[in-house]
């Protein structure tokens, strides 16, 4: 028993010494020739972690041979001591991050480029992730390049990872202490929760189903709908979910998001959308400026004769008005204009 107790005492002394070394680095001036380097911080943190693990092993062996009464006192004493030295390590990691922020992985990527070209690039900001499944692929690819694949110590990587996580994602790993071994555990835990193909497919499908119906048939609303659809369709294609698999579902879904009286056809081409945006054909026709000329009251004789011969029904929309409203033809594609005018008895020549 005395031998086991001696090992526990020695392990505690080594851990105290490692904690004191960290405290000296924290208290050291960040400037000047004697200021500690990032390597010294990382080495001291690594040494502390090793000594803490050795102390835990010796403590567990000692707790197995003492009486129950002594065990209660031992647990209380060790809990207070361990909490104190662990806070020292946390402060050391935070101090290292503040001192060497310019040497973080994100900045080192820019520094490696600027050192060769002589141009100082802006510091890259690490992304954040709050638990949205659709945001995980983008977040992890950025974090992997900026932090995960670098030569930075795992403890610092874990610190960066924790600083990037918010909400549900942060709560997923909050039970893991800040150690080198737990970094890979945290990464595996996040990947097992968010890097799942079926979860991403369902998330994109739910986003498509949750699209709001268009209330205005103008160019900006159509372009916004088109961009949103393309984003989800391309993301599904990256997950090997092609249009052949969800096209039957997608077509009526998009149709249900359009206004019921909209004459905007399916398959609207990008060039046609851009032309309409430039010409603002979706907007209501502007009121003509008033002139000093006062029109005669009542219909003219020619208008009365014309209205008596032909029904006042639009050949396109079959609504009750005497002439096609301004911009009505612009709402139809060229081939559909030809079909509508042919149906109305107007001879046309179809050309692109």
What structural keywords apply?
352 residues; mainly alpha; 14 helices; elongated
Strand portion, in percent? under 5%
- The separation of the N and C termini measures 96 Å
Chain-averaged pLDDT: 71
Helical residue percent? 55-70%
Structural class: mainly alpha
Count of domains: 4
Sketch the major β-sheet. Answer: none
Number of helices: 14
Rg, please?
Answer: 36 Å
Strand tally is 0
Helix-strand topology string:
HHHHHHHHHHHHHH
Shape: elongated
Give unreliable regions as ranges. Answer: 102-121, 321-332, 346-352
What does this structure look like?
The chain is mainly α and 352 residues long. The protein folds into 4 domains: 2-99; 108-195, no CATH class; 199-279, no CATH class; 310-352, no CATH class. Helices cover 62% and strands 0% of the residues. It is built from 14 helices and no strands. The longest helix is centred in the first third of the chain and has 32 residues, at 68-99. The protein is elongated, with a radius of gyration of 36 Å. It starts with a helix and ends in a 9-residue tail after the last helix.
Condensed summary:
The chain has 352 residues and is mainly alpha-helical. The chain is 62% helix and 0% strand. The longest helix has 32 residues, at 68-99.
Question: Secondary structure elements and their pairing?
Answer:
Layout: H1 2-27, H2 38-63, H3 68-99, H4 105-117, H5 136-148, H6 154-164, H7 167-172, H8 180-194, H9 197-209, H10 219-238, H11 243-257, H12 270-279, H13 301-309, H14 334-343
